[in-house]
């Protein structure tokens, strides 16, 4: 069988080369610009003049909320948000209800993603049963399940017991997996509301001190070194954490780290408004932390950008600060924020963006099909981004179920125009395709793929 | 000035205006008929999410002396404690025609959220929010200090050069914060004295002198005002200090320390006091103590605030 063919005309690759791209079945072929080929006759043409082509973005840290919190997001709506942001792969965090701590739940999440078709959904397995921090969950069963789980995390909670963390690192190593740690000392952050500093003291909001993150990272890199396992650090937020990770890497410790878009652009000063859209965990930090994270990405200390997309219904943000939920949606705005914070400032080029938002997260999560360099025959997971225009980030850019974006009303650079997953479009001309169309494309793709 | 949310945002002119109008209100409070028609037909809602009888009745007295109707809306035992949101409560009050809302809330920033939400259009007065601010307390403290210093010639005067030592649980005190910002704006100098565990993180960047040593501070400053803050016993369990005895010995205003003060040094306390802990009975009841003046002045200040925020609107 054969899916429609697309001809992408005049795209700029991350390397700066200009090329036409043919999308046929689920593969990419490069074509010198202006070539008239028999294979492209009848193809749907997409004018990509001025657009940057990037391999499909991969988010190692997404909260899709299903099962259990479908009022905030579902696998379908969350992966739709992913498509709107140029993502074709998302790793779904385990803090669902029931918790993703068994083969049954992770297979269900993956199946929902496959069915929706907007992106390749890879579940993350919980490290401990029910995120309880006491007993290891069925890590082997999840690794061997159809979902082939390779990333394990109790995100939302820190695996704070040192012995349990040691065992988790060792046991996950058995399956070529990685523990993604939410680094937060629980006692130092009881009821914490925002970054601890003069501002939290002035606003009367309980502080979340940098040391609560840095001390856990320091312990974990030493544990990873001791047992020879790999460690991934979620949402690094402080300059001190960047220093600790830089030191660990210089010792040869196998650690990778992520920074979120919001920690790369926003600071704690926004909390002065007591507007709970800016409430997130770990909290927004100081200017110097933002700059340290950007420098860390530029010099490779921080490996990737991951969104920590955390949808919440309106009512859980429409309240006094203390009562509001932590978290921000981030999939739809991630690439524009990355451009604003890193490309426009000269710290990263588009090749680096492809690395930190696609290649490396795919490698960390052992996800195939997303780390290509547009070589002939590469899987047709890619996105086309218009870097030229700055615009106000408005509600119509959000494609998930929840609207808790801290970027609404802010001017951001660039805009994702088109996204292709497995060779079929999920977004065309900034419009996300409707779910029936995408679902049908996914079914067609699946039928043509050897099981 | 549309709302009174904090003293941090008050300009010197705004602060002096409130203090001067409070002088007029104090004159009313000394008359036989303690009532003005200024807010006749208007409704003030006391929206209290946290118990505080003292503050609530002070606002209630202030509103009534301005001839306003008062509705007391206490969170305890109401729908609020059953999970009704601040938004729903605010919209209910708006629908009932509240012309002004006095809010006390356990969450810092709740008054500001209310003021900026669009859920209700009325002026909002912060009557204490979390560990953020308690602006009318600071205003009544400044008013009390000014009256003690300048008596009948208080009107129009600031507190330039006045030295105020605030002692105790600065970390959890919205009174300390509001006092710092207001006293600084009025030209006074503030010292905070407490164990390091009870000094807010980052307070070294604030316009206050920080000290751990009460005796040295009292000796070197010879302050015009010593303000003692209430110490809550649950702080001991959270390891802020070992026990009440040790705290009282090092940071309490006992009779011996009282004796070292200048005869005209004021001893203030926002109440309620823990006699024998942060303040001795001798200090609390001495002629230096302003505790009862603070209560009386509280009504005048709150009258001034309600009058300034509410009398202009139609
Ligand atoms: Zn997390």
Automatic annotation (TrEMBL), chain A:
A GO CC term assigned to this protein in UniProt: cytoplasm
Entry keyword set: Hydrolase, Metal-binding, Pyrimidine biosynthesis, Zinc
Domain of life: Bacteria
Metabolic or biological pathway: Pyrimidine metabolism; UMP biosynthesis via de novo pathway; (S)-dihydroorotate from bicarbonate: step 3/3
Active site: 308
Reaction equations catalysed: (S)-dihydroorotate + H2O = N-carbamoyl-L-aspartate + H(+)
Ligand binding (Zn(2+) 1): 61, 63, 155, 308
Cofactor(s) listed in the protein's UniProt record: Zn(2+)
Cofactor notes: Binds 2 Zn(2+) ions per subunit.
UniProt xrefs under SUPFAM superfamilies: Composite domain of metallo-dependent hydrolases (SSF51338), Metallo-dependent hydrolases (SSF51556)
Domain Dihydroorotase catalytic: 52-239
EC number in record: 3.5.2.3
One MF term in the entry's GO annotations: dihydroorotase activity
Matching HAMAP family: PyrC_classI_B (MF_00220_B)
Summary of the function given for this chain in its UniProt record: Catalyzes the reversible cyclization of carbamoyl aspartate to dihydroorotate.
Family: Belongs to the metallo-dependent hydrolases superfamily. DHOase family. Class I DHOase subfamily.
Name assigned to this protein: Dihydroorotase
Organism of derivation: Subtercola boreus
UniProt lineage: Bacteria, Bacillati, Actinomycetota, Actinomycetes, Micrococcales
Gene name of the record: pyrC
UniProtKB/TrEMBL annotation, chain B:
SUPFAM superfamilies, per the entry: Aspartate/ornithine carbamoyltransferase (SSF53671)
Positions bound to L-aspartate: 82, 174, 230
Alphabetical list of Pfam families matching this protein: OTCace (PF00185), OTCace_N (PF02729)
Pathway the protein takes part in: Pyrimidine metabolism; UMP biosynthesis via de novo pathway; (S)-dihydroorotate from bicarbonate: step 2/3
Enzyme kind, highest EC tier: transferase
Record-listed carbamoyl phosphate binding positions: 54-55, 104, 134, 137, 271-272
UniProt domain Aspartate/ornithine carbamoyltransferase Asp/Orn-binding: residue ranges: 160-309
Keywords attached to this entry: Pyrimidine biosynthesis, Transferase
Quaternary structure (record): Heterododecamer (2C3:3R2) of six catalytic PyrB chains organized as two trimers (C3), and six regulatory PyrI chains organized as three dimers (R2).
Function: Catalyzes the condensation of carbamoyl phosphate and aspartate to form carbamoyl aspartate and inorganic phosphate, the committed step in the de novo pyrimidine nucleotide biosynthesis pathway.
HAMAP family xrefs: Asp_carb_tr
Protein name per UniProt: Aspartate carbamoyltransferase
Originating species: Subtercola boreus
């Amino acid at each position: 069988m054969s899916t429609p063919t697309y001809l992408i005309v005049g795209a700029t690759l991350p390397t700066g080369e200009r090329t036409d791209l043919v999308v046929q079945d689920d593969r990419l072929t490069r074509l010198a610009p202006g070539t008239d080929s028999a294979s492209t006759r009848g193809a749907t043409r997409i004018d990509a003049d001025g657009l940057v082509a990037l391999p499909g973005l991969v988010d190692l840290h997404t909260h899709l909320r299903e099962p259990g919190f479908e009022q905030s997001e579902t696998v379908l709506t969350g992966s739709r948000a992913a498509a709107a942001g140029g993502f074709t792969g998302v790793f779904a965090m385990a803090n669902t209800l029931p918790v993703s701590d068994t083969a049954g739940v992770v297979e269900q999440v993956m199946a929902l993603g496959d069915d929706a078709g907007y992106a390749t959904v890879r579940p993350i397995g919980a490290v401990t049963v029910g995120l309880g921090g006491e007993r290891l969950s069925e890590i082997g069963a999840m690794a061997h399940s159809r979902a082939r789980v390779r990333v394990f995390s109790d995100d939302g909670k820190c695996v704070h017991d040192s012995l349990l963390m040691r065992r988790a690192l060792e046991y996950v190593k058995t399956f070529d997996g990685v523990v993604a740690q939410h680094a937060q000392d629980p006692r130092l952050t009881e009821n914490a509301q925002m970054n601890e500093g003069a501002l939290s003291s002035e606003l009367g909001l309980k502080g979340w001190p940098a040391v609560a993150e840095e001390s856990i990272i320091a312990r974990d890199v030493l544990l990873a070194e001791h047992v020879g396992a790999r460690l991934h650090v979620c949402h690094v937020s402080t300059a001190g954490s960047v220093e600790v990770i830089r030191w660990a890497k210089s010792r040869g410790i196998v650690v990778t780290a992520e920074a979120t878009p919001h920690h790369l652009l926003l600071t704690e000063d926004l909390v002065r408004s007591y507007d709970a859209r800016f409430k997130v965990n770990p909290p927004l930090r100081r200017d110097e932390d933002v700059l340290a994270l950007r420098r860390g990405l530029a010099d490779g200390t921080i490996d990737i950008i991951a969104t920590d997309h955390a949808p919440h219904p309106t009512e859980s943000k429409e309240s006094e600060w203390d009562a509001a939920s932590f978290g921000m949606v981030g999939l739809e705005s991630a690439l524009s924020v990355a451009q604003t914070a890193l490309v426009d400032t000269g710290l990263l080029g588009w090749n680096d963006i492809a690395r930190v938002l696609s290649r490396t997260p795919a490698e960390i999560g052992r996800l195939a099909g997303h780390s290509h360099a547009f070589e002939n025959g590469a899987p047709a997971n890619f996105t086309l981004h218009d870097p030229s225009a700055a615009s106000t980030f408005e509600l119509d850019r959000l494609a998930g179920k929840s609207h808790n974006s801290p970027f609404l009303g802010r001017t951001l650079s660039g805009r994702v125009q088109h996204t292709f997953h497995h060779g079929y479009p999920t977004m065309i001309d900034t419009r996300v395709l409707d779910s029936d169309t995408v679902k049908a494309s996914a079914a067609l793709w699946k039928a043509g793929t050897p099981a | 000035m549309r709302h009174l949310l904090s003293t941090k945002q008050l300009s010197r002119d705004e602060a002096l205006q409130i203090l001067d109008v409070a002088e007029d209100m104090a004159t009313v409070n000394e008359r036989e008929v303690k009532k003005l028609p200024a807010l006749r037909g208007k409704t003030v809602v006391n929206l209290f999410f946290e118990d505080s009888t003292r503050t609530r009745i002070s606002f209630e007295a202030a509103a009534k002396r301005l001839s306003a109707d008062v509705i007391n809306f206490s969170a305890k035992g109401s729908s609020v404690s059953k999970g009704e949101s601040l938004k729903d409560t605010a919209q209910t009050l708006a629908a009932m025609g509240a012309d002004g809302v006095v809010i006390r809330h356990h969450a810092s920033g709740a008054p500001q959220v209310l003021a900026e939400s669009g859920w209700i259009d009325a002026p909002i007065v912060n009557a204490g929010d979390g560990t953020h601010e308690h602006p009318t307390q600071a205003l009544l403290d400044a008013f009390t200090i000014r009256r003690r210093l300048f008596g009948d010639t208080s009107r129009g005067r600031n507190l330039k050069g006045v030295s105020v030592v605030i002692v105790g649980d600065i970390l959890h005190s919205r009174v300390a914060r509001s006092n710092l910002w207001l006293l600084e704006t009025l030209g006074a100098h503030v010292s905070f004295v407490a164990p390091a565990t009870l000094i807010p993180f980052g307070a070294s960047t604030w316009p206050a002198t920080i000290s751990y040593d009460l005796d040295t501070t009292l000796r070197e400053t010879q302050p015009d005002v010593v303000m003692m803050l209430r110490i809550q016993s649950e702080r001991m369990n959270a390891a802020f200090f070992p026990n009440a005895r040790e705290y009282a010995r090092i940071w309490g205003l006992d009779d011996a320390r009282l004796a070292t003060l200048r005869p005209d040094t004021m001893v203030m306390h926002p109440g309620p006091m823990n006699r024998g802990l942060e303040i001795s009975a001798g200090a609390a009841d001495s002629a230096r103590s302003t505790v009862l003046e603070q209560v009386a002045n509280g009504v005048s200040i709150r009258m001034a605030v309600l009058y300034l925020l509410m009398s202009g609107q139609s």
